[in-house]
Each structure stands twice: as C-alpha cells, then as structure tokens.
Design brief:
The structure is a homotetramer of 313-residue chains. Chain A has two domains: 235 residues, Putative cyclase (Glucose Oxidase, domain 1, 3-Layer(bba) Sandwich), CATH 3.50.30.50; 33 residues, no CATH class. The first copy, chain A, is built from nine helices and 17 strands. Chains in contact: A-B, A-C, A-D, B-C, B-D, C-D. The interface between A and B is large, with 105 and 105 residues.
C-alpha cells in the first residue's frame, strides 16, 4: 500500500495563517503542547542549531560550509560598507556610516532550512489534496511555507551516533524504527504528540575532513523510522543530514516513491522536515528534551525557508 | 555629550559565537534571564510578529506589503514548480514532483528584520571599538549578524497607540521616556535586564489605506525614550515602524547624530534593533509580557537578517 | 481576421543556432542582406543606442534611469573592490587588486533589451506553432533568446518626432503606416527586406523632466504602422519607447489582442522587438541608414536579453 | 622594469562616454579604423563567438558549460511562463500569454565577457592613474565598463592550435611573440592599430570531454606575446581561454605581477580583454580577418560585462 496525500489534523491556535488543511502537523501545536514544551526548559541555556550562511563570491572568506553538489550556493553582497567610507565615500550627516547588504539564497541543499508542504508530492496532488498546478512560477498558492507558522515545540533528540558509539554514522547506515525505539527506552524520554524529533547522524562533521565523501552517500532514516515518528504524531522531523532520508552513493534519494521519506512525512502526513541542522553542540550537552523553536520566514508561496533553530535547555 | 561606541556587558551562555565584544546586549541573555523569560508563558498561545515576504516580480499576486520607498523589494523565484509538471516536465522516478525556489532579499526597509551591530556607526569605529574598515564587500569580519545568536528573552509590549487611545500614532508623534514610564505604571509590568522591549505605533496599518502616507514621515521613539530603554538594560528594541526612531516627512532620520536612535542603541549600547514587526495580533491579546524568540539567520558578515519573531503567551 | 502564429521565412546563414522555425525574421539576415547592411557604412562613426544599467541599491549614485513602474530594477553588487584594499584587504601576490561584481537583471521594462520569440503569444501556441507549455520555470525550450543570434543588419531610422517637428511625441500620438510612408518619401531611403526599423518618439527624454509622466501613457506604433513594417519584411523593430506599441494612460497596452503590436510582430511574423533604446544621439547625426548591430546574450531559454545596440554610420 | 599604469591614446569618436583617460585603447577606434574594419567584410556571413549562458538551478537542462571552479554560476529564473498558463494562470486580456524572467550573473570565469579597465590593477592606482579607492561597493566611478563603449573593429584571428597542428593546445603551452609573428607571416595578414586580436587555444573543447582537466591549468599567452600585441596597438585581445594569460595547474595565474597579462594589457596599456570566447566555428571558416563587434552592456561602474561577440566575414 502506498502513501496517500494526508488530511489535516484538527485543532489549531493560529488565526492568522492559512486554513488548517495547509498547515499539516503544525496544527498539533495546541496550547497544551506548547505549555508542555516550555516545561522542558530547566537550565536556561541556549543552543543554536543552524549552520552559518556564507557567501560564495570573491574574498578571503570564501571557504565553504556543508552543502549538496550542484546547488547554487548562497550569495551575499554589501551594497555599501565600511571600506567604502575608508576609501572616501561621504558619510551620512557628515559622520554616520551605514552598511547594507543583500542575500541570494536557494535553501534546499545549501543551508539549515525547513521544507514547506508544497516542496514535494506524488502524482498531481499536494498534501491534503490541493492541486499541484497551484505551485507556479510566482509561488505556491497552496501549502507555501508562510502557512506553516513558527514551530514552538518540545524537542526530543535522537542521538543515533552516540547511541551506536560512533562520532558519525557511516553513509551506509539506515535508521529504522527499532533504533529509535531503543533510544527512547535507554533515555526514558517519551515522544509526545506535537514534539519535534531531532535525529543526529553526525554527518556534517565529515565535511571538514572530506568534502567529496560528504557529497556522496549519506546516512539517514529509513521508511520504518519515518513511519514510527509519524505514528507518534510529531510536528516535525529535524535532521543533520541533507534529506532526512538517506542518500545513495550517487547523491540521489535512496528509496523509491513507496518508501520515500519526503513523501511519507511531508506529503502524506503533513509532518514538516528540517534539514542540515548542526546538532553537535546540542549533543554535547547530554540533554534529550528541551524547548525547540524554529520560525521560517513567511515567504509567500515559498517551498521552504532558511531557519536558525534554537534549543532552550 | 555625544554617545560613544559601547563596551560589551559581561557574562554569556554562548560558546559558539564570536567574542563577547561582538555580541552586545545579547550577553544579557543569561540562563537566569532565559528562565525568567520562559516563566512568562502562561497560555501556550503563539503569535507571529513577522510580516510576509512577497516577491515583487510578475504574476497575479504582486501587490505589495509595507516597505520604504527606493528599496529593492524581495524577489522570489521558482526554479521548478507544479505548473512545469502540468505542462509536461518529467517527474522524478516517474511520479514525484519537486518544487524549488530562490529568494533575493535586501532586508533593511523591506521586511521584518533584525540589525547587526555592524549596521551603523559614527566616525570610524563600530560598536566596542572595532574598526569600521573591517566591514567590507565580502561581509563584516566584526559584529556581523552571525555573532548575535538567537534572542530568547522576555518580551514586554509598550502599546503606545492603545495607551493613547488611537488605532495608530500620527506621523508627528515622538515617543519619549515619560510615555514609556506611564505605560509601565499603568500595566504594572516592570522591564527587567535582558528583556526585549516591543514598541507598537500601529503605523503598518496605514499602508493598506494610504501607501504614500506610509512612506513619508513615521512616528517613533525619540532620544529620551531610547535612552530610557537602554538604561533598563534591554537586549533589544523591536518596533513596528521602519527605523525604531521616527522618520521626518521626507523619509530621512528625524534626529541628528547626537540624538539618533541607531547610534544610541545599536552602536553605543549594543542593543539590538528589530524593525517592521507586525504587532497588531499581539496587541489584540491584551498581554504585556511573554516569551519572545527571534533567531536571525547566521549570515556571516551580514548587516542584519530577516526574522519571523514569535511571542509565546 | 486576427493574426495567427507565423511561419519561419526560409534561408539562413546560421548553422549553430536552433531550427529556422525558432529564429523568426532573423532568417532574413542572408549574406546578401548583411553585405548590403555593411554597405551603409560611410563615415566610420559609432553611435551607441543603449541606456545605462544602474544598480538600484544603496550609495550616492542611485538616482535612476527610465523604467516602467513596478518592475524590479537592476541590482549591481561588487563582491570585492578597490575600497576593500584601501581598508586593508590583502592584495593578490602582495600588490595586485582585483574588482569583481554581479548583476541581477529583469530586462523587460527596465533597460534597453531585445525580446525573444517566446516572450508573448496568444492562446496556447508560440510563434510558428510551438507549444507554449514548453516555456517553463527552467527556461523556454522553444524560441528562447539564444535562438535569435546576433542581429547585423541595415538600420533605417524613422525619426517621427523630428518629422513632426517636436522634441518628443505627446503620449497620445499613435504612429500609423501613413507617417512611416511619409518619412520614407521625404528621406528617399527605402526599407529593404532584412532591415531593422528604428522608430524614434523621443519619449525617454521626458523621464529626466517628469518621471511620473514618463511612467503613464506613452506614444508608439499603432497596428497599421506595425503591419506596414512587417509587410516590408524587417528583421526587427527597435523603438525608444517601452513597448513598441503605445501605452494607455494607466500604463497598460493600448490595444486589444487583435491590434496588439507584440502579437502582430513578434508572435505572428517572427519580427524581433527591441525596446527602450536611446536614439537621441543617433537622431542628432541626421543619418537615416547605417549598419545596425545588436547581439543578445545567448541566455538559454531566456525571454529576452539586455543589449547595447550600436549604429555604425 | 615593471609596467606602470598607462596613459590614454589620443583621438576618439565618442562624445557620449567618459573622458578619454577612462576609455583606454578604445580610443583607437577612429573613423578610419572603423572603415578599415568594415572593409574586411567580404562574404556577409555571421559567426557568433559567445558561449551560451545556462541557468544553474533545478530542471532537466542543468548540465553545465565551461567555467572556472568556485565561481557562482549564472542563475536564470522565469517569473511567469507558459507552464503557469497551462496550469490555469489567468491570461492577459483573456488570451495573451507573457513570459518574463530574471538573470543573476557574475561574468568573470563563468561566460564570454569583456573586462573593464577597473577590473585589475597594481598598487593603489587604476589605469591612467585613477585612484583605486574609487572602485567601491556601489560600482567604480572611474574606468567602469560603461566607459568602454561598443567595440567595432577589424578582427584578426591567431589560430594557434591550427598553426601547431593540434585540436587544442596542451595546458603547458605558453604563446609567445614568436608564434604570433609566425602566424602573421604564414597568413600574410598584418595586424593594424585598432584591431582586435583573437587568440584560439581550442581549450573550451576540453570541457565536454574532461571537466576536471578544463578547470586545472590552461594554455595562454605569455608576457612576450602580450607585449607584442600591445606594441601593435590593438584595441583588445580576445581569447577562448579563461584569463588571456595561462593558468598554472592549480588554477592560479601562471605569471607573477611583473609578467601578468592583465596588468600588462588592461592596466598598463588600456587594452581591453575578452575571455572565454567560442572560436571553433570561426576557426572552421579559415578566415583570418573580418569585422568584429562586441558591445558590452553599459553597467555603470561594472568590472565587466557578458558579451556575445560577432564576426562578420
């Protein structure tokens, strides 16, 4: 049996955003769930889970950060800067300097980001039956990222690499339901409806040492792992690999349509996906549950948004 | 006496980001302050404080959102979309559709954003004495937005429009220390070190009715108001107008260098500024304190970042 | 009777580009026509017919050039520049400076450009019957600007403003076949197959004096004028207004589909359109025929290209 | 003795562009030189010398064209297209389709382009003594590409690969004055003041077969070859390799500052450089002299411009 486009869960505390049927699992962020998430804060420590966004153009700093091959890298430009004043540009009111800039960003595969429900689908229907023909050159008029709203949820870390006693998972590793179940048992931290599940493979650490290896195959969830998470009614799955699911050695999705993680989670269940997180600092704390916040930019009709998620411990 | 570039407050719970002297008032986000902020959550309601980002190019949806005149508007493009498949593009694996896009964004003056400490300065020194010559075409190597880290703080709303009994402040209104003091007294909600002060003028509501008026003068804080907030050791000031301070009728800053709000807060005190927020929904709740989260993208060397701040009530 | 998508003229001296049926009237540039065009050079003078492209972002030079309202203006960024070295950036090999930049350009309505055959159509068919569904997010796989190839042709100037004794045509003026016929007679310069017809309204000179007026209605060819040019088998029509045809006072096309100049020339006859030329310098020379060269960038699947056309007198 | 920033040659037929001292060798394009160039047309054939510009984003056509590693590739986006109408977008006036697009381009190292005089210098002075501090984030106010004006000149092809009897030069080959002299003798085609010298290495043909090899070392002119061309008072040197001079195996310039081709030609002599041309079609014609036209876009303050040069045989 293949997956089908999902139906929206009921109940939402959002008035401003789109209809429930475009918000997917974000509808699980009920007041009770949010209060529960806030209750996970015990230390008041902040851990950022985003990777830096580094402009790819000229200059001494153009060394890069983890990304998939063939993707347009972020471009960052200053339209006026301090060097211009040093070189003689006239200052505002005679003494004030202003620096201004612009950013060009294709987020998928280039930086920490969150996928919109319109990012992927099967056949001609988006999540919850909306027509895929509504995703057009001027943006998606259904299931765009602006419909998601900020995620404020309890985060639960599945540190698979630590669980298996390795610094990072080999590219051949597939994370199934059994491992996730084991981790829950060993930590005694239950996954609750509305939670965000964070899955650490450690793969981003490979990039610094071996860029070519990073851009080949990648470890990730398999279909059983994804289904286990969805069945626990998570709002989102946030991973440090590039595609939540694993990548085959040629960089393509490792699973066919019937087992694809994007289709299963995003399309069929409305579970949001966050990819390319930096989970090393969080893992080092030893904490398994915390308050998780990620607020995608409300890009109207966008297929996703760069985010800088934060864990409040 | 004019303001001088500030020194960093001490104490930080961030290891990952830049030295304290590039983090400004973000250093006030101590574990105690964060715990205090989290303690302000009582209902579990979420209110988004960001404006939508709308691409300015062709298509039926190109009507605009509030922005300053002469600024390059956001551009949003789909590199592949559902319409392409409708028109015959080959699907992945025969049945999977993928939509991908790119965003070009100059945030200042065009959407809800947060300023980096390198955004503005006086003379040849940035905040805390760093040379302005370090702000170059390939980004700022001091005081870039990636140094700020996410803001997780107690938010306190100064709803000036409601306090004065008007839907929005007239463009001639300047918000001084006395009004802020009055609001605190009438609400009984103290401002604590590390808090984010949100100041509502209601000005964004003018845009829909009269775009030309919106782009002329704007109400905002005056120097006494800014100094009052800084003296209360806030981490950030977040306003719904375009420049925290007021704008004169020709759209320029309303105050000279000695009274400029950016210089006073950002440059001299290291207090972060967030501009162009949408505070209408928050104001309607009647809540005055809450958990405030805004996580700027870690754009290396960036002068700011678009953000989608969230209030957790 | 309405226009229908055209068929390609026969004969071409291009091997490299697309099939004849995607090159439209560029097929008229036979070796004989090119030799005839070269024969129009008598003085060896060069006149550029392009407007400058000016970045719209911060900085002292951001005053603008003629453009249509609501269009994204060109953005030009330096990724490294001389000011950076002045401010202390390390030079290449210790002593070499390099400046590098990037350009973001939406050409239609913002600068001197040439339209591809895929830019406009009626119903679901492009020029010569190609399916409009082939014009997709990743470019047009039929009739893109890369198929046109450079235009090297005899140029004939129809200086309508000078002919009518005014510095520029009023926005209400429509240029019909009769005026074009009159101009040919008065100059004694025949229009030959393969020629490029340049039509001067003088309208760009209005911009400096009255920007708002420029962006309202515009003078231009009417259907009879367009048909007269097409019947003379021109390769292209190049105008100094924004849309070859006239614009109504609200800035929209002044003619319905049956009389539309883009449909008549570009779609039905495969005659290329060049818009927003600067013809003032050329007009001042008093020359009516010359060698005309415009070489669009071979943007694969592009709807047009910025060009800097040149007249060789 | 090292090279010094050059002085402008005298005499120009341009009124519109910058002072002579910012036009460099373009001042050699006197009416006599232009008439001589036009006199080289004998057949009326057109050969385009530009490479295609291919967007690097998603979609079936994203295979690439020759470019240097680490450079931001062109990005091309449709803001509205035929697929959108197929998917149900409302047509203009009920029946008219319009396709529109945008291009993001960093030309150096990514496509056929022409360098501005401000692109490279030694010490703190640009060509002809202008301060390098005038090249700022908002563009170069001296020696920008808009000052060059279109090149309309006699082109002379130095087909070094054919002369040496190989399809392309090995990456170790350096082209010196002796080879250029030999080629002139064997063809009997003199180089005249104002000419554009085109130098064919055949290197772009390597890309299709071996992309990695293309991006390593490259054959090119050595200092003696460059000096020989400059001493013949050419307006420009146009090559099919990426940097006119050779590249070492690590992709860096093969010569130190005293022997650097950009410094010698562009900076010291004001000779324009065009790079990454496609000369294969031209070489196949066996013609050695012809009319050459390349019209850079008048990007104000730009360090160069993409061009689609054309040879008229």
């Amino acid at each position: 049996m293949t997956d089908t486009p999902g139906s929206a869960p009921v109940g939402s505390n959002w008035d401003r955003w789109g209809a429930d049927d475009e918000r997917g699992a974000a509808n699980l962020l009920t007041p009770e769930a949010v209060l529960g998430a806030v209750g996970a804060v015990r230390e008041g420590r902040l851990i950022s889970l985003g990777m830096p966004i580094r402009g790819s153009t000229s200059g001494p700093g153009r060394a890069s950060v983890p990304h998939l091959p063939g993707r347009p890298l972020p471009q960052h430009f200053m339209s006026v800067d301090g060097a211009d004043y040093t070189a003689g540009a006239r200052m505002l009111n005679g003494s004030i300097g202003v620096a201004d800039d612009a950013l060009m960003l294709s987020h998928h595969g280039t930086t920490t980001h969150m996928d919109a429900l319109c990012h992927m689908w099967r056949g001609d229907r988006l999540y919850n039956g909306h027509s895929a023909a509504r995703v057009r050159s001027y943006g998606a008029t259904r299931c765009g990222i602006e419909k998601a709203g900020p995620l404020v949820a309890r985060g639960v870390l599945f540190d698979v690499a630590a669980h298996l006693g390795v610094p990072y998972l080999d590219e051949s590793v597939r994370i199934g339901a059994d491992v996730l179940e084991d981790i829950v048992k060993s930590h005694g931290v239950e996954l609750r409806p509305g939670d965000v599940a964070l899955v650490r493979t450690g793969w981003p650490t490979v990039y610094a040492a071996d860029r070519v290896r990073y851009q080949g195959g990648q470890p990730g969830l398999d279909h059983s792992g994804g289904r286990w998470l969805a069945d626990h009614d998570v709002t989102a799955v946030a991973c440090d690999n590039a595609a939540v699911g694993a990548l085959a050695m040629d960089g393509s999705f490792d699973a066919g349509p019937d087992e694809d993680l994007h289709l299963l989670l995003l399309w069929s269940r409305g579970v949001y996906l966050l990819e390319m997180l930096w989970l090393e600092d969080l893992a080092a704390t030893g904490r398994h549950d915390f308050l998780f916040v990620a607020a995608p930019l409300a890009i109207e009709g966008g297929t996703g948004s760069a985010v800088n998620p934060v864990a409040v411990l």
